[in-house]
Amino acid sequence: MKFDIKALSSTLKNIQKISKGIDNDEKIKKYGTFLDSKQEIAQLYILFIFFGIHGDIIQQYPFHSQKVDYSMTEYDLD
Q: Model pTM?
């Protein structure tokens, strides 16, 4: 029985290439890509710029929650 080393090695290389592609696809699905993270960083940067520029306008909006001042010895009733 003869084995063709070149054919076997090329088959192994193809299998390694396919498994590496599958691993990369799984990593992209799990963690996203570099461009995805850059887009999220840009969105956060723009949001922070907006709040920095329009902070005075945002502070004019009323708060919907009541401010309750507690001291260290006061607790809510259960």
A: 0.37
